[in-house]
Amino acid sequence: MHVHNLPAEPFAAPRGADRGSSDRQPVVVARHVTKTYGRTRALTGVDLEVRAGEVLGLVGHNGAGKSTLMRVLAGLEACDEGTVTVGGRETSGEAGPRAAAFRGVRMAYQETSLCPDLTVAENIWVSSRHCLPRLRWRRAAGDAARRRLGEMFPGHGVTSGDRIEDLSLAQRQMVEIARASLVDRLDLLILDEPTESLGPDAARSLYDYVRGLTAGGVAVLLISHRIREILSVADRVAVLRDGAVIADRPAAGLGEHDVLTLMGAQVADRAGSEPAAAAAGEPADRPVMAELRGATGSGLHDVSVRVGAGEVVGLAGLAGQGQQEVLERLWRPARRDTRVHGSRAYVPGDRQRSGVLPLWTVAENLIVTAMRGIARHGLRRPAEERAAVGSWVERLSIRGGPDAAMTELSGGNQQKVIVARAFASTADLVLLDDPFRGVDVHTKTDLYQLIRHEAAQGRSVVWYSSENAEMAHCDRVYVFRAGRVVAELAGEEISEEQIIAVSFAESDGEQSHE
Amino acid sequence: MSELLAPALPALPTRARMRRTAPAVVSAVAMIIMIAVCASLQPDVLTVAGLSLVLSATVPLVIAAQAQMTLMSVGDIDLGIGNFVGLVTVVSATTLVSSPATGALILLALVAAYAVLGALIHLRRVPSLIATLGASFVWLGLGLFALPTPGGTTPEWLASFGMWQPAGFPAPLLPILAVAAVVYLLTARSTLGVRMRGLGSNPVALERAGLRPLASRVMAYAAAGALGVLSGLVLASQTGGGDVSSASSYSLMTVAAVILGGGSFQGGSAVPWGVAVGGVTLGLVSVVLSLLDVPTNMQSAVQGVIVLAVLAGRVVVGKVLR
């Protein structure tokens, strides 16, 4: 058992003494790395160097390519072009979870990569079996896990025989980080949002441990959207945007505001849309269509959202900060804090899983929600249905026509059908759950126009999007962070820079709440 | 320092642990009640010979249930195990008698066929339900081809194992406990078991750690095939002949036994001791019903009701402990 033979120097090296020095050995170097999934270019040419004995902070907004870059650096996926060098050896072509070159590169995942039905010790075996004895591995793995957890998170309360499913979220995260760090020779430790579910004490002791690791010559790549945390821990900060590293600065002397400026330096592209501000009247004058008043619980904290008739309301911020919970409340207004007038329609984001009915035709997919409204005495009226379908197919120029099979359509056209399904119904309130992910630009432009047009007819739209540029098409935008509304932007205030600024700002109190 | 001492102390039954063992405990209670009912109707049941008689019918079912549990731990379900056990009885009643070496080879080939089935399921991404259902017709066809009508004899050694009557303890307990112990070592203690349960629990984590899910699944299927062969041999030793449809009810009974023992359809957990209890409980139901003089044509229905009642008890206990 040599997993605990980690460099054990005490955490003595004065941090910051050699901050920003570039004479250290690079551990992992990425050069002109690109990666394409289907039509999306996730990485457009990344140059990044992680050096021994330093903490490199990596920041970037939704879709900047963080997770793809991490998978490439950890050797889980090969890059399309460019090279990744680990410890001076080029690894092109040699990637995948079994690549030997990446043995010393370990990653702690945000959503954890533990098997919930296995015990802590068994999970350690799965990921660190190379450094465990063949016999009595269970005891060795349990000892290693207990020792490492004790070093990292004193008072963690985890025993090696506990099953992961019985642990709390924070404890699972602790086990995941300990799991990643347990290897005979650790070169680079990648931490993906490690403190997301940890309390402040655990986060502090984790970062103390990380400093000890780097003092011993290990490189640490820290991904977090808590910019203050990154600035206080990292030696260098790299900013990722649109699949490339656009800035790489020493953390010393860098302020939170500077990082935010670097992340949102480009101006939102609003071409092809009518200015949203034109449609924005005074929100207060409109009759209220739906309302959340101080909603708390199931991921939300004191959220108040108001949707007026004929208004397009955006829900923005980093993914998973409570936006979908708001949509869920509006869709099923079961609690007293939610009031919704009129009927609703829902456009799911994951069209493969909850959107399309793959065996049905375009016409059937499109009309399924509106069918009941058109029918008379419970009997369908095919002529009227066909007319409605025809007008929508024409209006959105859905390729293939009404009789095409749903699965023959491209992703963009399928999405058009699903959006048309919601708007073809008589619903007063349309809920959009990030529906335009991975849809091409032309389709998006068509759909943006459709949304504005329908809003002008008096319909209300609540629109969650992970793409901040899309929010420019809204009348008002609520920005979410950790289940709270941290800002409400209206009209001209809505811009990508604003949204990024408020969604990352570590607000203690309320910001720009009118 | 309390962290260092903690694991040295015997682990207290936590709420989580109680919740996991609750189904097996409910089944065990049901089993004890059934034995008590048997004993009140027929006091001889509590003698060694009586217990042997009562338990012997459950042995092949329990072993087949262990095979089912192995596959359910990787998240699959085997609907072909019944006919597979039947096919093994046919082989042991025909080829294994006439030319033992060829017969043994055929049995090994059957185990290999299970491994290949697992590989196909993994590589072609066929639902295991469909693939094993298809395979069950193959087993049935092969069995009917080799032995169109029930019959044949049993190899001497197998028959003498069936007749074995040790003094002091009921003979069927030995295979039940031995197989459960082996399966426990395989699925719960060994690294292979970790890989199999990891596959049922979170295949992505397994893949990221550099372990091959294909190898885990193939090993699970091979183990299930071996247990299926064992179950068939034991069944043949008791019936004294071969009949391909003699165990066709096992396909679903074994699933019920695993669920009674605390397994789940999601995969990830291995409960060999619970399955042993669940299998015996299920097998005892028909014994109790015959002792109670329930008409044979009503037995299936009553058996189903009893299984549902035990499952309902499991659900209630699970809710209380949550």
Describe this structure in words.
The complex is a heterodimer of chains A (514) and B (322). Chain A has 514 residues and is an alpha/beta fold. Among the domains of chain A are: 270-342 and 429-514, Rossmann fold, CATH 3.40.50.300; 365-427, no CATH class. Helices cover 31% and strands 23% of the residues of chain A. Chain A contains 16 helices and 19 strands. In chain A, strands 6-7-8-3-9-10 form a 6-stranded mixed β-sheet, with helices on both faces. In chain A, strands 15-16-17-13-18-19 form a 6-stranded mixed β-sheet, sandwiched between helices. In chain A, strand 11 (288-297) and strand 12 (300-308) form a beta hairpin. Mean pLDDT of chain A is 81; it is low at 1-22, 265-281 and 507-514. Chain B is an all-alpha fold and 322 residues long. Chain B has a single domain, classed as ABC transporter involved in vitamin B12 uptake, BtuC (Orthogonal Bundle). Chain B is 75% helix and 0% strand. Chain B is built from 16 helices and no strands. In chain B, helix 5 (81-93) packs across helix 13 (213-239) and helix 11 (191-201) crosses helix 13 (213-239). Chain B is globular and about 60 Å long. Chain B starts with a helix and ends with a helix. Chain A binds chain B through residues 76, 97-98, 109, 113-118, 122-123, 125-127, 129, 137-138, 142, 146, 150, 159-161, 163, 165-166, and chain B through 3-4, 6-7, 11, 14, 16, 189, 191, 194-195, 197-198, 200-202, 204-211, 267-269. Chain A: InterPro entries: AAA+_ATPase, ABC_carbohydrate_import_ATPase, ABC_transporter-like_ATP-bd, ABC_transporter-like_CS, P-loop_NTPase. Chain A: Residues 28-267, 284-507 form the ABC transporter domain. Chain A: Residues 1-26 are annotated as: Disordered.
The tally of beta strands of chain A, per DSSP, is 19
Work out the strand percent of chain A: 15-25%
Mean pLDDT over the full residue set of chain B: 89
Unreliable sequence segments of chain A: 1-22, 265-281, 507-514
Q: Write down the domain tally of chain B.
A: 1
Output the radius of gyration of chain A.
Answer: 25 Å
Helix-strand pattern of chain B: HHHHHHHHHHHHHHHH
Low-pLDDT runs of 5+ residues of chain B are 1-11
Structural class of chain B: mainly alpha
Give the strand tally of chain B.
0
Strand content of chain B: under 5%
Strand order of the largest sheet of chain A: 6-7-8-3-9-10
Please give the alpha-carbon distance between the first and last residues of chain B: 31 Å
- Rounded to the nearest angstrom, the distance between the terminal CA atoms of chain A is 60 Å
Helix content of chain B: over 70%
